[in-house]
Design brief:
two-stranded antiparallel sheet, seven-stranded antiparallel beta sheet, 9 strands, mainly beta, single chain, 123 residues
């Protein structure tokens, strides 16, 4: 079961986590200047985790209750330990963005695809 700061906001449906590139932000040779012959290291990249999945509701109102709870958490920049379905944890992560898909799917269940972005913000 996944969670952010102890809140299990996304467990109504399947979801996965993607770790974005980590390391350093750099400018390769010749990128800005034709006489630049070396790589310039700019800064360290912030850890970014993308979560994709589907929210599943028993009813339309149940689905939108979930969406509103997640929206509220993203708007206040919910911060804490992020835990994925396998128990892998990332400390000091902030839920910065929640992007629901453009349509609700209605089949056997009512569901909505989404993407959530967590970032470990630099101090």
């Amino acid at each position: 079961m996944s969670s952010i700061a102890g809140h299990t906001l996304f467990n109504s449906g399947p979801h996965r986590f993607i770790v974005r590139p980590v390391g350093m932000l750099y400018v390769p040779p010749l990128f800005f200047d034709p006489i630049q012959t070396t790589t310039n290291v700019v800064t360290q990249l912030e850890l970014t985790i993308i979560q994709t999945g589907r929210l599943i509701g028993a009813s339309e109102s149940d689905l939108w209750s979930q969406v509103n709870a997640i929206k509220s958490a993203a708007e206040v920049q919910l911060n804490g330990t992020l835990t994925d379905n396998n128990g892998v944890t990332w400390t000091d992560m902030t839920l910065l963005r929640f992007a629901p898909a453009d349509r609700v799917d209605r089949g056997r269940v009512i569901s909505l695809a989404y993407e959530a972005t967590y970032i470990r913000l630099a101090a």
